[in-house]
Amino acid sequence: MFFLLPKENKYLYSLKSPFIYKEMASMSDKNPNSSLVKRVNKLLESRPENDKDTLEALKELSTFFTENTLNNRRNLRSKIEKKSLAINEEFLSAFREVKSTLDDIHRDVLGMNNSIQSMTSRLQTTKTQTLSLIDRTMKLQNESRKLSMQHEVAKAFIRTFELSRHEISILHGQTREEPIAEEFFTVINRLQTIHSSCRILMQSGYQTLGLDVMQRMTLLQEAALERLYRWTQNQCRHIEHDQFAPLLIKGMCKLQDRPVLFKYIIDEYCTARRAVIVGAFIDALTLGSNTGGTPNPIEMRADDPTRYVGDMLAWLHQAIPVEKENILTLLKACDKTDVSDQVKHALGNITEGLCHPLKSRIEHILDVEAPATVLYSVMSLIRYYLAILSDIIPDSVLVNTLSELLELSERSFNARLQKETRTALGDRAEPPGQDLVPAASVSRLLGLLSDVLSVALIVTGEDREKDIQRVTKIKIFQYAEERN
């Protein structure tokens, strides 16, 4: 092993013995200018402990130079060369493997390069070939977007101007007798909306399309209104109460656009209600009324002509406004036309059936030998209710019938009054007594006049004054005629 020994502020290398230092000192004394001394001095002055390469070399040398003998020192060079040769051979062998590996890598890189060049060439060819495909794809995408937009426009157009299959099935119904529901009127409203929108479509320049859609909607609307007409007609035939379903009111509102169908429905309703009201009137006459008026039959009071006629006319006065309210309710949604004339005409048709039973009974009362006071009471009742009903159903058959009955009652009253006057006066005129007391015929005449005028006082209005003047005039003229 080498180790350092201090000597006059210098470091010397030694191999476990100080003889080298002594020998070198003696050599320096003998020949101080020799080259070896210079080298040694230079070596000592270079301070090798700071040279890492030298230290590493000495450490490596110590691995195989274990003994400092003469033989070892002589063979040191050859050992170092052999060691260097072995290291170089190992280095060469390692580099041979590295070279082989690099050659493989080079071949792989060349193969990859060839593959990349081939791929690049094919990609270039593919790119050239796909340019037209890309251009076509772009055109197809633009066309697809255009078609998608057209599809959305078509769907929006169909939603706006066409009915779905479900809506069409609602309009036509599954069967002919299928009742109409609320959905039917919803579809009818949409159908009318589409029909109105076609005008806007035509004003926008799409006349052909607008006319085509309008024609289809018109056909559907006509079929729907025909079905609505049949359903409404059937409902009117079976009306047995005064309350109308909301659907029937809506149906009349839709049918007002078709005046002919609307008139047919009104006539059908009038026919049904005429049968109902005539039946109710006959029941009130023969069986009594449970809904209003007198519970006992009116015919039970036939022996009292005044009350009998009054009850019949009072029943009419109660029933006719109800019928008017019913028909106004039926037509309350009809706001496109004035239905007042149709209401009056309908009421006239409904009440027409009451004319025959009423007229036959009143004529029978007038034909019976009744007192003039009774006939005057009947005439006053007819005149009173005629004035009331003339405001409700003017120019109707019932009003005309009451007018005829009024004329007949007036003739009967006048004839009866004249007959009773002649009976009261007797065949010959009686002179007054010696005490100037009126004759008995005059007293009877005045009593008859008093009875008639007492009934006339019950009558109100201008007719009372006319009746009083007419009765008085008849009595006076007839009395004067008898005296002459």
From TrEMBL:
Coiled-coil positions: none
Keyword Protein transport (UniProt): yes
Major subcellular location class: Golgi
Gene Ontology cellular component annotations, sorted alphabetically: Golgi membrane; Golgi transport complex
UniProt signal peptide: none
GO biological process, one term: intra-Golgi vesicle-mediated transport
Single GO MF descriptor: RNA binding
Transmembrane parts of this sequence: none
Keywords noted in UniProt: Golgi apparatus, Membrane, Protein transport, RNA-binding, Transport
The organism's place on the tree of life at top rank: Eukaryota
Localization: Golgi apparatus membrane
Membrane topology recorded in Swiss-Prot or TrEMBL: Peripheral membrane protein
Sequence ranges assigned to domain HTH La-type RNA-binding in this UniProt record: 47-151
Family listed: Belongs to the COG6 family.
Record's function text: Required for normal Golgi function.
Assembly behavior: Component of the conserved oligomeric Golgi complex which is composed of eight different subunits and is required for normal Golgi morphology and localization.
Protein name per UniProt: Conserved oligomeric Golgi complex subunit 6
